[in-house]
Design brief:
Layout lengths: L3 E4 L3 H13 L3 E7 L6 H5 L2 E6 L10 H11 L3 E3 L9 H9 L3 E2 L4 H8 L1 H10 L7 E5 L2 H11 L3 E5 L9 E3 L5 H16 L4 E5 L5 E9 L5 E13 L2 E7 L6 H17 L4 E9 L5 E7 L6 H8 L3 H9 L16 E8 L1 E2 L5 E2 L2 E2 L2 E3 L6 E5 L6 E2 L6 E9 L2 H14 L1 E3 L5 H9 L1 H5 L6 H5 L9 H18 L6 E6 L3 E7 L7 E4 L2 E4 L2 E5 L2 E6 L2 E9 L5 E4 L4 E8 L2
Length: 558
């Protein structure tokens, strides 16, 4: 077994690997950019070494620097996590050439599965079904002929990379040429390779993946499926296991296909085969991720297997201690990714300081996080903050636990996906489980319902009281407004024990039961209501309700 592992990553996955190392009694080494000096993973690791400036290309993506640090500290293995250099064959080669173990497949396997066109050919040879299409496109005329042959709609996809980058959906021929140019340009920028191809766009498919694990002795097994159809911009937001409506027969067939795919390239370690499944239950290979996945915890929950532990053991040369017949799936798990982003503005990132952070607790809950209150979310990296996983005896119990935990989870100071996820858990289509990859587009586009008048008054009154408490001149009268919703003059009593606020010609009571670190709990309609309150520049406030975030203007009246 390894004695020291360097984790070439950051955030929650670095924390996850550090904790796995601790259980295996392996010393861990974190690398961090100057922007991450106070990050959680740097404080949890046994050693932490700065790898460069905030810009990822000069730190986390600097192959030579990462390998040099690993050699300097005496690490005998490197875990790449996911993202960054995790599927970079050149990095895996450099690590291997330095005499350090790479916790992942060989550089040759990464190359073979990283180039989507080459991977498709290998899968066809291995007897694994692929989505129709797949020929590399070199010009617009060739693309028009290929699209006509497989039928619209089609997807223009990057041959290298993934994560939705370099991908465009094309409904008709008039859209094709622009899509080709944009997809190729994006792929060139993201992956250094502008090669693209066309693929049939399946209507209403589900995105289901199979987790595999393989040792160096030729044993390969799978751990069942994960449902990954809740996506925005082709990137996953919610994952669960098992998949809705999955039959033992379909699971066995998809698992066998994933195992064949892994064996076809001599795979060793943890990997995931991604498939699209149509309404008839036919499945088609999409790609293979040659790393641990973000969503691996849902599989760990339903199989009771530590996948990161196994991944490290496979890289150390151990053989699988379990056979396929030993793998069983019990219960249900759902994971929600918490991003620093604004879902009501097309999920744009929301960097900034985290003013307050209150985590949920309860039975069947797990939180994999790379952040805490007081830290700053930088714009330099992926905006994922944490993953909230709920496990139950069945889907109903797991979903109930997830919904309750999302209500309890509070983050103040930045916009997050929490309000969106709470609304998602209330959606009837999602609750039934029979959703597909178009779910967000079809079901979640309208945003929250109109704001209740009484709740709006409560927000305005709370802001007025906050403003009065902080006013250096002791003023108690303020013009408060919810843009495009309501505006009113608010008068607050000079007595801090008086919780009444006059809003125009009406009077309300602000009954606060808790006010800690920007997280406020007050009574509304006979029940406790938790919200976040953050003062902004020029007298404004940002109020986080359970299903939305409100900007409130506030100006003192002399």
């Amino acid at each position: 077994m390894f004695e020291k592992i360097l984790i070439a990553n950051r955030g929650e996955i670095a924390v996850r690997v550090i904790r796995a190392c601790r259980l295996l009694k392996i010393r861990s080494v974190a690398v961090y950019s100057e922007a991450d000096e106070d990050a959680l993973h740097t404080r949890l690791a046994d050693e932490a070494i700065c790898c460069g400036p905030a810009r990822a290309t000069e730190s986390y993506l600097d192959v030579a620097k990462i390998v040099e640090i690993a050699s300097r500290v005496g690490a005998d293995a490197i875990h790449p996590g996911y993202g960054f250099l995790s599927e970079n064959a050149g990095f895996a080669q450099a690590v291997t050439d330095a005499g350090i173990a790479f916790i992942g497949p060989t550089p040759e396997v990464i190359r073979a599965m990283g180039l989507k066109l080459a991977a498709r050919e290998r899968m066809i040879e291995a007897g694994v079904s692929v989505v129709p299409g797949g020929e590399e496109i070199t010009d617009a005329e060739e693309a028009r002929e290929a699209a006509a042959a497989i039928g619209y709609p089609v997807l223009v996809k990057a041959s290298a990379g993934g994560g939705g980058r370099g991908m465009r959906r094309v409904e008709e021929e008039s859209e094709l040429e622009v899509a080709l140019e944009r997809a190729s340009s994006e792929a060139e920028s993201a992956f250094g390779d502008g090669a693209i191809y066309l693929e049939k766009c399946l209507i209403g498919p589900r995105h289901i993946e199979i987790q595999i694990m393989a040792d160096s002795a030729g044993h390969t097994i799978h751990f069942g499926e994960r449902e990954c159809s809740i996506q925005r911009r082709h990137q996953k937001l919610v994952e669960e296991a098992p998949a809705f409506g999955m039959t033992p027969e379909l699971r066995a067939a998809m698992g066998a296909a994933a195992v064949r795919a892994a064996r076809a390239v001599g795979y060793v370690g943890a990997g995931t085969c991604e498939f699209l499944v149509d309404a008839r239950g036919e499945f088609f290979f999409l790609e293979m991720n040659t790393r641990i996945q973000v969503e691996h915890p849902v599989t760990e929950a339903v199989t009771n297997v530590d996948l990161v532990d196994l991944q490290i053991r496979m890289a150390a040369g151990e053989t699988l201690s379990i056979a396929q017949e030993d793998v069983s799936i019990s219960g249900h798990a759902i994971e929600a990714r918490i991003y620093a982003e604004d879902p009501d503005k097309n999920f744009i990132p929301s960097p900034g300081p985290i003013v307050a952070w209150a985590e949920p607790v309860g039975p069947g809950l797990r939180l994999d996080s790379g952040f805490e209150g007081g830290q700053t979310v930088t714009s330099h990296y992926d905006p994922m903050l944490a993953k909230l996983i709920a496990f139950g005896r069945d889907r109903e119990e797991a979903l109930g636990r997830l919904a309750a935990a999302l209500e309890e989870f509070s983050i103040a100071g930045i916009r997050t996906g929490l309000p969106f996820l709470r609304r998602l858990c209330e959606n009837e289509v999602f609750r039934k489980g029979a959703y597909d990859t178009a779910f967000i587009e079809n079901e979640m586009g309208e945003g929250p319902p109109p704001l209740d008048d009484a709740l709006g008054d409560l927000v305005l009154g709370l802001v007025a009281r906050r403003a009065a408490a902080a006013d250096p001149e002791g003023r108690t009268c303020f013009d408060v407004a919810l843009p495009k919703i309501a505006s009113v003059r608010a008068e607050v009593s000079g007595n801090t024990d008086d919780n009444r606020v006059r809003l125009g010609d009406r009077e309300i009571t602000i009954d606060v039961s808790s006010d800690v670190d920007a997280i406020v709990t007050l009574m509304h309609d006979g029940a406790a209501l938790r919200l976040t309150v953050v003062a902004r520049k020029k007298g404004g406030f940002e109020i986080g309700l359970r299903d939305r975030v409100l900007r409130v203007k506030c100006a003192p009246v002399d």
